[in-house]
Every structure is written in structure tokens, then in C-alpha cells.
Amino acid sequence: MTKYRLDQIGKVIGGGTPSTRKKQYYANKGIAWITPKDLSGYSKMYISHGARDISQEGLDNSSAKLLPKDTVLVSSRAPIGYVALAANKITTNQGFKSIVPNTDIVLPKYLYYLMLTKKDELENVSSGSTFKEVSGRVMKGFEVDIPSLDKQANIIQKIEPITRKIELNYQINANLVA
Predict the structure, then answer these.
(1) pLDDT computed for residue 178 by the predictor
(2) Is the peptide bond before 147 cis (omega within 30 degrees of 0)?
(3) Other CB atoms closer than 10 Å to residue 161's CB: what's the count?
(4) I need a labelling partner for 132 at 20 to 30 A (CA). Which of 15, 36, 96, 112 fits?
(5) Contact at 8 Å (CB) between 34 and 50?
(6) 28 CB contacts (<8 Å, ≥6 apart)?
(7) Is pLDDT of 174 > 80?
(8) Quick check: bond before 108 cis, omega within 30?
(9) DSSP annotation of 30
């Protein structure tokens, strides 16, 4: 097992919000845009869309970045520590510090599971007077232990069946309530 900073195993990228005063920056079926609110109560590994999408013009005129599939989305404020994997190309608001994993070092699913366990540690390294936030600098320097790719694959193989059952149970419960 080797200790790495997150910026050594992937690219840490913040998000952005297009001006809400410009309706043309948002679209019904545009570019997927995720906010921490979209992950509140969200129990699946992958997310493809949030409540709102942005337009290409909104992307071009904000600090939002288009992230590739399998990017590990980590909320960095309000609240800290929500985690999901991008099911497709996606953007986020500024409440995220997302990680595009270097797959020569870390598997996206392994990093997803690992970051799920780091919520308390991320909260402990956050700062701010109005609300707590993990800065880009702190997130880039955040250290994690990464085993070999073979061990990562083995861990994923053991965890995934359990994760699928949990997701199925949430789906069953949601259907019972509906």
C-alpha cells in the first residue's frame, strides 16, 4: 500500500455555476450539471443527471468544467463528503472538488469506495467561518492509501455484490413508498 496525495492519483477539478440571471445558460436536456443537493439522499454509485442541466453557453460562460465518465464527484461544501461516479460526461457546481482518476494508479470504483469512507476526515480538514468547505489546495493535498491495481480490483469484486443489493433495497423501498 502506498500513500498518495489526491493530485498524484488524479486531476482535482472544481465546479462552477452559470449566472442564474441568464435563462439561456440553462437547458431542459442540455449538459448534466450536479449540485450537492442532487446527492442528498442519493444512494446509487453512478449519477447521470441532476435536477437541472446547463447549456453549452452556460458552460462556456462559467467556471464549470466538463468532466469525463467515471470522474469521482466529491462534495466539498454544503455538505462535505457526498460521493458519486459520473455515469457520463458531467459538470458540477462549485460545491465539488471532483477527481478524474489516473487509471494507471487507481481504479475509479476503488476511489469512489475509498472517498465514501473519508467524509469525517474531509470535514476535519475543512475551514471557513460562514460554512465549512474543503479548498482545492487542501483536496489536492489530501492523502489516501492506494494498494496495487490487482488488490483494488479484488476489493471491488468483493464490495460490488453488496453495493448492488443495497441499491436494490433502496429501489424496493422507494417503490413501496410511491
Answers:
(1) 65
(2) no
(3) 9
(4) 112
(5) yes
(6) 53
(7) no
(8) no
(9) S
Q: Which of 9, 146, 155 is nearest to 71 (CA)?
A: 9
Report how far Cα 171 is from the mean position of its chain's Cα atoms.
21
In the Cβ-directed half-sphere of 129, how many Cα atoms lie within 13 Å?
Answer: 0
Q: Where are the alpha helices (DSSP H) in the chain?
A: 6-9, 36-39, 56-60, 108-116, 119-124, 136-141, 149-177
Element (H, E) at 3: strand 2-5
DSSP lists the bridge partners of residue 73 as: 84
DSSP letter at 88 equals S
Is the separation of the CB atoms in 76 and 139 below 8 Å? yes
Torsion angle of C-alpha atoms 40, 64, 76, 88, degrees rounded to 10:
50
Lowest mean pLDDT among 76-80, 106-110, 174-178: 174-178
* Residue whose C-alpha cell reads 471557513 in the numeric block: 128
The yes-or-no verdict on residue 92 having pLDDT over 80 is yes
76 burial type by CB count under 10 A (0-12 exposed, 13-18 middle, 19+ buried): buried
